[in-house]
Amino acid sequence: MKIIVLGAAAGGGFPQWNSNAQGCRRARSGDPAAPARTQASVAVSRDGVRWFLLNASPDLRQQINETPALHPRHGLRHSPIAGVVLTGGDVDVIAGLLALRERQALTVHATQRIHAVLDANPIFEVLARDVVTRSVESLDAPFALEEGLNARFFAVPGKVPLYLESGSEPPPMLVDDTTVGLEITEGECRMLFIPGCAAMTPELRNRLEGADIAFFDGTLWRDDEMVAAGIGQKTGKRMGHMSLSGLDGTVEAFRSIKVERKVIIHMNNSNPVLLADSPERAEAEAAGWTVAHDGMAFTI
Ligand code: MLT
Ligand code: MN
To answer: Which domain range does residue 262 map to?
Structure first.
């Protein structure tokens, strides 16, 4: 299985357009220890010819341009992108679908809940239904991306997309088909893509155990880092993301889970692991984590 990281940052990207915080300033100035990152998405392929996008980020047009494997190969209209798989309904997960108009045949795989979000927003009708198949997948039920490449959604703790929150009360934590993890298998090879997750559960632990590679939610280093930096009022928990550090954090949780390659993805612009010279980056790497960057490639 071939895997290319198209984008490694969380919603907003790195640098985020309206952030003047130090990390974003470093990225904007071209600091080699703070390389810019587009919003989270990964491309997966069995043969290097047909590719499947895991999430469609608002930066998808740029990501395709920067990834030769995703360029048209023959004829006047062609794309190696055969399908898109969505793990949620947030803007950074679905907005890139709009860049895939132009009557190119592909399949969009998502849960019923996420398809309902797309169905309720007529702008997504630019993906003409006579050429773009919307395939509704049930939780825990395997589906084929193509022959030899199988996938499965599973529930992870999360919440409704930000723009569907109502009132000022924090939304309830959901473990259903709103926020999902994705498992892709090719023969004995197994990759997991979990860019958003509010908490580690025994079920998730079992799912991760023995994976060849896992891309995992790395939104924040510290649950209160945006509050502490004065750039926001929300904690990671409030946003539906577990944080990397701390006793209930991701780094600690994974110490007792056997995963061959652990990759941090969906990093908010405030996360110090984005900076190659930060102590937090050193700590994550010492614990066996790889910090994703755009263009990073894996073959498993
Ligand atoms: C998230 O991952 O929490 C969302 O992408 C937030 C957002 O929509 O900005
Ligand atoms: Mn997000």
So the answer is: 2-299
